[in-house]
Specification:
By secondary structure, this protein is α/β, with parallel strands linked by helices. The chain has 12 helices and 12 strands. Strands 5-4-1-6-7-12-11-8-9-10 form a 10-stranded mixed beta sheet, with helices on both faces. The longest helix has 20 residues. It is globular.
Amino acid sequence: MAQTLDDKLVVAISSRALFDFEEENELFEQADDEAYMQLQRERLDVPAKPGVAFSLARKLLAFNTPTQQRVEVVVLSRNDPFSGLRVMKSAKHYGLPITRCAFTRGTPPWRYLAPLRANLFLSTHLADVRAALDAGVPAAQVYPRSAHASDRHPSEVRIAFDGDAVLFSDEAEQVYAQGGLSAFQQHEADKVTQPLPDGPFKPLLAALHQLQQAGLADMRIRTALVTARSAPSDERVIRTLMDWGIAVDETFFLGGLDKGEFLREFEPDFFFDDQTGHIESAARHVPAGHVASGVRNEA
């Protein structure tokens, strides 16, 4: 019988998101892929340093037990197969039980997200992220020079989400863009009892919620909603989460305050937001990824 990933939380992750290949990538950008490949071959037995999404991958894999595999992390990368060997040897060095991988040598790898049944795709390539989002897969562009996750919560996967255009659709942001704050507030007041439409990362939040129900004593998931909204537009958000039957552990309605300092205190393994300004602020403190969706990311 063929193997299947249907019953698992599947995270597809690029090489540069999982490991720090910034020095090698600089050579790639300055020269060509042959020079890059040669350098990777020369460093084949030198483990790469952990990258921005390393902590998230390692902690999610800790939800697996000898009797039940709940999470699958798959390396899905534009790397060539020879360079990919260093990626997989690095994963083995750090004890990451990653067994599935695909290396496409420069061609867009997002096409393979569907057969992987991926719940999340993390990549440094914006074009691949946009294509994945268009295909209905939660995806974010990793900022490879983001701060790395704190090591103070070894038994918790901590993930923070923005609201509009991430967990929820960008319906409200479109109203704000067209009519300003007063139009936005009136829109939310008029529709306060109507759940917000699903955003691109709602399926990931639902999958994390399901994983949390595993009830493992050694690993937990803690989620946070960090949004620029403020009262009274908070009510529709909370009602939406209630309608979904999904609880988040912490909510921050910041009314335009800088998110970075709050995220520094929450210490997530990853933060997702649709606005590059928020990501750049957050990346000084925590791992961060840009969700290139919604009206604010239209070309």
